[in-house]
Automatic annotation (TrEMBL):
GO terms for biological process: RNA modification. The keyword tRNA processing does not apply. Keywords: Repeat. It holds the Pfam family E_motif. It comes from the Eukaryota. This is Pentatricopeptide repeat-containing protein. It comes from Carya illinoinensis (Pecan). PPR repeats lie at residues 30-64, 94-128, 156-190, 257-291, 292-326. GO terms for molecular function: RNA binding. The keyword Disulfide bond does not apply.
Length: 448
């Protein structure tokens, strides 16, 4: 008993070498000892050693099979996991074994295989249902996720959280709030997972009043305030423009993770408080928190809106320091920053040096600056080199509109008319603006 405990302790602490020494030293080993050693190997993703031990076992129990199936699935080897699943003796294939196989497929995005196993399950637990809902939501198939949810005979909070979270993550924010209301109507009290998802929905919709009600409900209902709830509050207040409250919540957060820093920086950048965004970025670096690609995108966006060209170029160069590879979005921000400042030649040279093909967003930024500064020479160079291909032009009406305006402003009426004719022939229309309406009361939706 003591030997097994030591094997398990060393394995769970990541010290597989000492765990194996203890395992080999033991004169007699129970199936629990074997499982502990196999679990240790799988925890460090050493599936080969785990498999060798597994094949040597004279007796296996349900836990043995579950450990092996789950271990291979987590390494994205669902083929081996399925092979093991098919070998499980019928008397040992319980609901957990089935669920682990389903979750292995959903975690790896293979919903077709997951559905096959799911439909064959003789019994289903709440985790199997939630795994399928989450799996479909990760693939963006919210309709199928809702269909699975509707089939659950007896729902629990985890099932509701899977649906609400899936709605919010896919931008179906009204659906998330509706589901939240239905959940409460069925007598379920929200937990910190529910609250984080609902705050995200409020943030995306700009529902400040609803977000404030949720904030009040957190304290009133005694809901655990963890890092995800705090991130949700900062993000909600920041996106809704209540930057003072967002900053207050941010400053009161002891353990700020990357999402918390990004939410605060992005909030300042989005609402034009660019110096504050750069200050928070500076604080982040001083606290030895590593920024990620989203951080840099938000800070570069702040530089664009604030016209901070030198700062933006310096920040862009810092990405290499953090071993981050700039994406097309980062390059797009830098191009936009230079172009808006009138440094069109530098911006165009950057486009030509980019390691990836520029997209229509990059060209829209470039042409927008050409229009502002009436730089026909640059416009002609872009057109002459054929960088704006026909496919890109017909896919984005903004490029056609910009070129039409540039040509018209320089009295090149024939070219302007050609752009307008292209738009008509392709059935393109200028995308109309829209406004959002925030309801005066959300008590009915939230049930708070």
């Amino acid at each position: 008993m003591v030997g097994t405990s030591l094997v398990d302790m060393y394995a769970k602490c990541g010290n597989v070498v000492d765990s194996r020494k203890m395992f080999d030293y033991m004169p007699g080993r129970s199936v629990v000892t074997w499982n502990a050693m196999i679990g240790g190997y799988l925890r460090i993703e050493d599936t080969r050693s785990a498999s060798v031990l597994f094949e040597r076992m004279s007796t296996r129990n349900a836990v043995t099979w579950i450990e092996m199936i789950d271990g291979f699935a987590k390494r994205r080897d669902t083929v081996t996991a399925r092979r093991l699943f098919n070998r499980v003796p019928p008397e040992l294939k319980n609901v957990v074994t089935w669920t682990v196989m389903v979750d292995g497929y959903t975690s790896n995005g293979d919903m077709e295989a997951a559905r096959e196993i799911f439909e064959e399950m003789p019994d289903r637990n709440f985790f199997a249902w939630s795994s399928m809902i989450s799996g479909y939501c990760k693939k963006g198939d919210v309709k199928e996720a809702k269909a699975i949810f509707e089939r659950i005979p007896v729902r629990n909070l985890v099932n509701w959280n899977s649906l609400i979270s899936g709605y919010a993550q896919n931008g179906f924010c009204e659906g998330a709030l509706d589901a939240f209301g239905e959940m409460q109507a069925e007598g379920f009290e929200p937990d910190e997972v529910t609250i984080a998802s609902v705050l995200s929905a409020c943030a995306q919709l700009g529902l400040l009043d609803a977000g404030k009600e949720i904030h009040c409900a957190i304290h009133r209902k005694g809901i655990l305030i963890n890092v995800f709830v705090l991130n949700g509050l900062v993000d909600m207040y920041a996106k809704c423009g209540e930057l003072a409250i967002a900053r207050l919540v941010f400053e009161r957060t002891d353990e700020k993770n990357i999402a918390c820093w990004n939410a605060m920086i992005s909030g300042y950048a989005t609402h034009g408080q660019c110096k504050e965004a750069l200050e928070i970025f500076g604080e982040m670096e001083s606290s030895n928190r590593r920024p990620d690609d989203i951080t840099f995108l938000s800070v570069l966006s702040a530089c664009v809106h604030g016209g901070f060209v030198n700062e933006g170029m310096e920040i862009f160069s810092k990405m290499e320091k953090y071993s981050l590879k700039p994406s097309i979005k980062h390059y797009g921000c830098l191009v936009d920053l230079m172009a808006r400042a009138g440094r069109l030649k530098e911006a165009y040279d950057l486009i030509k040096r980019m390691p990836m093909k520029p997209n229509d967003t990059v060209w829209t930024a470039m042409l927008g600056a050409c229009r502002i500064y009436l730089d026909m020479e640059m416009t002609d160079e872009i057109e002459k080199e054929g960088t704006l291909n026909a496919k890109m032009m017909t896919a984005n009406e903004s490029l056609c509109i910009l070129l039409s305006h540039i040509y018209a402003a320089s009295n090149r009426w024939e070219k302007a008319e050609r752009m307008r004719t292209l738009m008509i022939n392709e059935g393109m229309q200028k995308t109309p603006g829209c406004s959002s309406l925030i309801p005066s009361s959300t008590n009915t939706i939230l049930g708070c």
